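Researcher: I'd like a structural prediction for the single chain below. Treat it as a standalone chain; there are no partners to consider.
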Amino acid sequence: MSEYATFLKVGATSILLRMLEDPSIVIRDLTLEDPIRAIREISHDITCRSEVRLANDGSSVPSTSSANTWTGALRYHERRPVSPGPRGARPVDCAALHRENRERAARPGPGM
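Model: Treating it as a single chain, here is the predicted structure.
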C-alpha cells in the first residue's frame, strides 16, 4: 500500500473514531441483516446501486451510505479540527483537495 493511501486510511479512521466516541454525534444504525450476503451482493454489483437489507427492516445503498458518512466526517472535522501531524498536513484535507480536483476535472470546460 502506498504511503499516501496509508496516510488517508489512518486519518479517516481517526476522524471516524472521534465521531463514534463523541456523545453529541448521532450515527444512523447501518447494521446489516445478513452481512455475508450483503458483501457478496455488493462485490458483484458493478453499478454500485444495489440495496442491502438492514437489521432494522430498512435498506441502504452502500455507496450512498459511504458518501453520507464522508460528508458527515468532513463536517465534523470542520467543527473539531485536529492538529496537523508531523508532516504538517491532515489526511482529510488532502482527501478533500483530491476530491475537489477530481470533480473539477470531470466537469466539461467552456465551449464543450
